[in-house]
Specification:
With about 100 residues, the chain is of the alpha+beta class. It has helices at about 15-30, 75-100; strands spanning about 1-10, 35-45, 55-60, 65-70. The protein has two helices and four strands.
Length: about 100
């Protein structure tokens, strides 16, 4: 799987990229139709310290693309939440395909 990282107003982090790659590889092992992933990290000015670190991931695969985005207090927490959302979307798609 090809993984593209984009940072908006955030410094690039090899540690964060390795963390995301590990999570996405686990998803790819379970759902083999994933072709590539676009990962976006953004910072948002907010008065709430529990928000503001945004992670968005778009998965390219046959059919409609799958997308999830969340904003939490740290990028690691945002990544974990986005991966959970992607996993549920992939599970729904897999169940839909298996029922036909």
């Amino acid at each position: 799987m090809n993984i593209n990282f984009e940072y908006h107003e955030v410094a690039g982090s090899p540690r964060l990229e390795a963390f995301v790659a590990e999570k996405l590889n686990k998803l790819e092992n379970k759902y083999d139709a994933i072709v590539s992933a676009d990962v976006y990290f953004k910072k948002e000015n907010t008065s709430n310290p529990e928000l503001g670190k945004i992670c968005s991931i778009r998965l390219a695969m046959p059919g409609p693309t799958i997308f999830a985005e969340t904003s939490l207090g740290s990028f690691e927490a945002s990544v974990a939440k986005v991966i959970t959302e992607l996993r549920s979307q992939l599970q729904k798609r897999k169940e839909k395909l298996n029922s036909h």
